[in-house]
Design a protein that fits this description.
With about 325 residues, the chain is α/β, with parallel strands linked by helices. Helix content is about 30%, strand content about 25%. The two termini are about 15 Å apart. Bound molecules: NADP nicotinamide-adenine-dinucleotide phosphate. This is NADP-dependent oxidoreductase.
Length: about 325
C-alpha cells in the first residue's frame, strides 16, 4: 500500500520538505498502525531538518535511505494491530509522542507506533487539540510536575509562556494550585493571562529577575550560548527553589554553586517516554476532556504545506501549537 508523506533528502531550508508517495509502514508485534489525522510541529523538528550532525544522530543516517521522514507527534485512528498488542483495537482514536528521539516517521498518512507510547483520545477532544498535547505537553509535565514537583501555593515563573510548551506549563501549574508568572513578549500578554497566569512579564521591556526574587520554580526555555539566562533565572528563585533548564545544559560549576550558595536545585529536563509517560498522558487526556486544559492552535496547514509550518516554528515566536493535517 502506498501513502502520502513529507520527505526530505537534503538538510536545509523548509522548502526541502516535499510531498511524496512511499509505502505504508509495516508494524512490529507491539505496534499499532495509525491513520494520522493531525501532526504537531515542534522546534526540534526544524533543528533536525537543518543540522546534519543532529539528523545523523537521530536517524543514524547511513546514506542508503530512500527517504527520510521527520516528526514525532500524532493523533489518529488505529487501523491495524501487531500480534502482541493488547491495549488498542481497530477504530480506537489515539494520540502520543512516540519513538522520540529516534526515527518515528510521523509526517505521513500512516505511522507504526508502539502501543505503550499512545493513549486513547477522549471523544470530545479534536484530533488537532490532541496532537498538540503530545511532546509539548509531556515536556511541560515532566518539567513542572515530575522534576519541579509543583504544589499548591508555589510561585512559578514560566518563560516562553505563550509557546507550545509554555502554554501547557502555565495551565498545569495552575491546575496544581500554583501562583504563575508568565514571561513572553507584550503582544502575548492577553493570551498568557487568559491561560490563567496570575501575572505577566514582558521580556522585551521588563527585567524579570528584578520583579521576581522569591520564586519556588523557574521553568527556563530561553536559548543562550552560555549560562547567562540561567544565571538570571537563578536570581528570581528563593533559597530552596528549583531551576528547570529545558534548552541550555547548565555548567557543573553553576549547578554546584547554586546548591552551595542558595540551596537551589538546577535540573536539566529532557522530555522522554519515562516510566510514568502513559499515566501522565492519560491524566492530560482527562484535563483536555474536562476542558480544564486547552490546546491553543495558532495555525493549521495541509500536509503539502509542511514547509510553511517549519518556517513558522523556526521563528521561535509561535503562539500555542502549529498543526499539520494529512
Ligand atoms: N528539553 C526538552 O526536552 C525540550 C522539549 C521541547 C522543547 N524544548 C525547547 O523548549 C523551547 C520552547 O519550546 P516550544 O515548543 O514552547 O517553542 P515555541 O512554541 O517556539 O515557543 C517559544 C516561546 O518562547 C518565547 N520567548 C522567546 N524569547 C523569550 C525570552 N527571552 N524570554 C521569555 N520567553 C521568550 C516566545 O514568546 P514571544 O513569541 O512572545 O516572543 C514563545 O512563546 C524550545 O527551545 C525547545 O527547543 C525542550
Amino acid at each position: 500500500m502506498i501513502m502520502k508523506a513529507i520527505i526530505f533528502k537534503e538538510v536545509g531550508e523548509p522548502e526541502n520538505l516535499v510531498l511524496a508517495e512511499v509505502p505504508v509502514p509495516s508494524i512490529e508485534g507491539h505496534e499499532v498502525l495509525v491513520q494520522v489525522k493531525a501532526i504537531s510541529i515542534n522546534p526540534v523538528d526544524a533543528y533536525v531538518r537543518k543540522n546534519k550532525p543532529y539528523l545523523d544522530a537521530v536517524y543514524q543516517v547511513t546514506g542508503a535511505e530512500q527517504h527520510i521522514i521527520l516528526g514525532w507527534d500524532v493523533a489518529g485512528i488505529v487501523t491495524g494491530t501487531g500480534k502482541n498488542v493488547t491495549k488498542f483495537k481497530a477504530g480506537d482514536e489515539v494520540f502520543g509522542n512516540f519513538k522520540f528521539i529516534g526515527q518515528a516517521n510521523a509526517y505521513a498518512e500512516y505511522v507504526a507506533a508502539p502501543e505503550n507510547q499512545l493513549v486513547l483520545k477522549p471523544a470530545n477532544v479534536s484530533f488537532e487539540a490532541a496532537a498538540g498535547a503530545t511532546m509539548a505537553a509531556m515536556t511541560a509535565w515532566q518539567s513542572i510536575v515530575n522534576s519541579g514537583k509543583v504544589k499548591k501555593g508555589d510561585k512559578v515563573v514560566v518563560h516562553g509562556a505563550s509557546g507550545g510548551v509554555g502554554h501547557y506549563a502555565v495551565q498545569f501549574a495552575k491546575h496544581f494550585g500554583a501562583y504563575v508568572i508568565g514571561v513572553s513578549s507584550g503582544e502575548n500578554r492577553d493570551f498568557v493571562l487568559g491561560l490563567g497566569a496570575d501575572e505577566f512579564i514582558d521580556y522585551k521591556t521588563q527585567v524579570f529577575e528584578e520583579l521576581v526574587t522569591d520564586a519556588d520554580i523557574v521553568h527556563d526555555t530561553v536559548w543562550s550560548e552560555d549560562d547567562k539566562h540561567i544565571e538570571r533565572s537563578l536570581k528570581a528563585l528563593k533559597p530552596g527553589g528549583t531551576l528547570l533548564s529545558l534548552i541550555v545544559y547548565p555548567e557543573p560549576e553553576l549547578i554546584e554553586r547554586a546548591l552551595r550558595e542558595k540551596n537551589v536545585k538546577v535540573l536539566r529536563v529532557n522530555v522522554t517516554p519515562n516510566e510514568t509517560y502513559e499515566q501522565n498522558m492519560e491524566y492530560v487526556a482527562g484535563l483536555l476532556s474536562s476542558g480544564e486544559v486547552k490546546t491553543h492552535i495558532s495555525h493549521v496547514f495541509p500536509l503539502e504545506e509542511m514547509y510553511k509550518a517549519h518556517a513558522l516554528i523556526q521563528s521561535k515566536n509561535t503562539v500555542g501549537k502549529i498543526i499539520v493535517m494529512p
